[in-house]
Amino acid sequence: xxxxxxxxxxxxxxxxxxxxxxxxxxxxxxxxxxxxxxxxxxxxxxxxxxxxxxxxxxxxxxxxxxxxxxxxxxxxxxxxxxxxxxxxxxxxxxxxxxxxxxxxxxxxxxxxxxxxxxxxxxxxxxxxxxxxxxxxxxxxxxxxxxxxxxxxxxxxxxxxxxxxxxxxxxxxxxxxxxxxx
Length: 181
Prior knowledge:
Elements: H1 27-46, H2 51-55, H3 66-85, H4 102-105, H5 111-131, H6 150-176
Helix pairs in contact: 1-6, 3-5, 3-6
């Protein structure tokens, strides 16, 4: 277990408070609330750690790190909502056919920059969802086998965050012993 003392952290590293999840509401309200809760959970798992702790691969033989998870989830947000759903012509983040796992494997750069990219991707993703007329709307540029609705994309994102927040639990506990964040 690493016992580094955290440095003073910028606002990019502070986790927003997670609100109580809705028990009733429209489908859009419930899906976006759960997605935002999982986004805030990822931020909470990373809050208060040093750059070295964020980049630590604390559960060998896995190459996962909190820094890598943030990079990966920024790419997931971009892929599903900006590229697939909105049809924006953008390069993929931290991915190439020659090196598909660079989001986890290549941790060059400051984790704070990875958080800045992730927060920008999340902000743009929220705009896209807000502007969509209906959860029935389908992706403008589906690069998969046929049409895909916004509701399905939102469920996929909730599942992706939930899966990786489980990884983040283990990585955070490995970094400084904190649990239950």
